[in-house]
Amino acid sequence: MKNRLLALCFFMLILHAVRGQDTSSYVLSGKNIGELTWIGQNIDTAVQNLSRFFKVTLEKVPICEGCRETATKFVVRDRKGILFTLEPGWTDTTYNRIGEFRTTREEFVTDKGIRAGMTYGDLKKKCRILNVNYSRGIGVNVLVKGFSGSFRLQIPEEAVNEEVFYIRNLPDDIPIREIIMY
Hints:
alpha+beta, eight-stranded antiparallel beta sheet, four-stranded mixed beta sheet
């Protein structure tokens, strides 16, 4: 009986540890993408290291939701789905290095505490807004001081026809859809 109880406790401890992996947080700070990789790392090395823990594939993916234009990216998946994407650099000297990171997952959080799913109002409270860029069909990207990237906002369908007015008057409750680092 004592051995069964001990075995049950051991099993519960292992189960808890495995479940705990799904709730990991990865801090985005400077050029670092958690402890996983960093912007500028050799992309082949990064893919090899990430492949030990995740499924990594090279795919052509739309550059935005609903876009026909695609870009070739490394897609990193866990059991829940796409964790993040990595895109190589764009110049002769950076083509073999990580040039861009994108995620829509809440497991990634900036060193200021911002993650996908939070709001534009949360972002304004924690960071100094430098610029708000609108790309027709791609979305609204917000650049903040001290972060090497941007935050893509989820623009409602009804705002597309009123984009100039809407962008100048962004409501605080608009959600952050994606974090991009470059």
